[in-house]
Amino acid sequence: MGGLRTAEALRRNGYEGPIEIIGAEIYEPYNRPPLSKEVLASTVSHSAVNFTHNLLDANTQWTLGTKVVTADPVRHTVTDEFGVEHKYAALVIATGLRPRRLTVDGNNALGTHVLRTLDDAMALRKDLVPGAEVVIVGAGFIGCEVASTALALGCKVAVVAADAYPMIRPLGEKFAAELQRRHEAVGVTYFLNNGISEIVTSEGESELRVTGLKLNNGQTLDCQVLVQAIGSYPNTEWLAESDLDISDGVLTDNAMLALNTMGEVVPDVYAVGDVARFPNPRFNAVPRRIEHWNIPIETAKRVGQVLAAQLSHQQTFDERVAQQFTPLPSFWSDQFGMNLLAFGDLGLANRSQLLDGEVTGDCIWGYFKDDVLVGVCGIGMRGALQSYRKGFLSELPAGLTSGQIPS
Q: pTM to 2 decimals?
């Protein structure tokens, strides 16, 4: 999505020159969040998630099913897995993330899955049959969404996680504990403060198949379908020889221009989406990667404006670089009939509190960095949640003090 939206933004901002979009997958860009939600619950196909677009002009080239393996910012080239060298006037890095996997034997046996791509979702959907014993390792948003979908499809669902509560890192202990209560009330079994010591497999017709999991506490769980939802890695290995700072994604300045290991701007190289680590003055000057659904869109718009001015040799280039880029992160999550919606950067908070509603019903939780509200997350109460969003967008830095919280 980041690459597609960047190309669209370039055209929208007046750039009419050549664009080449290179992607490792064979599919044109598609919407990833529904892969763990409503699409996984029905028929998984490209047509169910693809983005419509108008990038069909002769000056836009789609090079799909092709992985880029190296980049040379000095020579302004990237080289793909087939040895073909692609020259560029500007490079936009939109390579996103890939799932982490368990580091125990059997993590690739039949019945084991990760969920990031359309192919991942297709493979997982085939195994989610009524009565299947599904174990999800990881209790973040993707893990909990898959648990919800699998339960609705008639599977038996257990979740194993090292954390004390599901989704505790963004949501805090109190809200996370309440969500765990709601999940357990509909049939999910949790094994928290725990990990996997062994994947138990049996010999199938042609290869090993998962049959169980041994936990760190010595317990063994029956398992026919194992979903590994334990986080992601930025796809930056192909940049290892580029001298870009890839210590955690691709470090950029506020204009999304990539920086090298000395902290200097690398000319003509940008990054967007999950892979980009950039400062957001709305909160503070510390560069961070934000893995929320709207960040590829917002960073692509930013690069489209700046890069179009650069490529078209517009006098507004320096002005656009100097403009503050202050996107407001946002995400949603559908779980067990509940829709969670969040605005802001919940990860910055050092405390949380209930702002509105009832803990056991529709509610809004506030996330504070000391006395400044840096994020909100709620179930239902859309009108009230939108009032917080408007409050964030009207302030810079965003964040209402505890004395300015909407009533």
A: 0.94
